[in-house]
Specification:
By secondary structure, the chain is mostly helical. The chain has six helices and four strands, in the order E-E-H-H-H-H-E-E-H-H.
């Protein structure tokens, strides 16, 4: 397994997923406003979901992309309420194994901005509730 829990709230990563996790963790640690509004784990969930959506778009236009989309979808589950549930590390591991680093780098600024926007919307929603 490319990631595992090593203690209370501690995780260890190995393999291709390391670059992806490091990238996302770097955004979080560099953004004090983001740190005040949410946890690193929440950023990972949002980032994993965004990268997954971008990967589906990329693979949707490829000849053999349908199989990758189906495998990616198998890492997701649906709750009784109809919400999608996922382990962001399983999703990121799949993406890291099936996309090159150029994809990570080329989409990094976009995903970072979208994650921040999602966190800001969620914080505003909670403040107004």
């Amino acid at each position: 397994m490319p990631w595992k829990k090593t203690g209370a709230g501690e995780l260890e990563f190995e393999g291709k997923i390391v670059k992806w996790v490091s990238e996302i963790r770097g955004w979080y640690e560099a953004d004090l406003e983001l740190q005040k509004l949410t946890t690193w784990e929440t950023c990972m969930v949002f980032a994993a979901a965004l990268y997954a959506g971008l990967a589906k778009g990329k693979w949707g236009s490829e000849f053999l992309g349908k199989g990758k989309i189906e495998k990616l979808d198998s890492t997701l589950s649906t709750t009784k309420g109809g919400q999608i549930s996922m382990n962001p590390f399983d999703v990121l591991d799949f993406l890291a194994k099936n996309l090159d680093e150029n994809f990570l780098v080329s989409k990094s600024s976009y995903v970072r901005g979208e994650v921040k926007a999602m966190v800001m919307r969620e914080a505003a929603r909670k403040a107004g509730a």
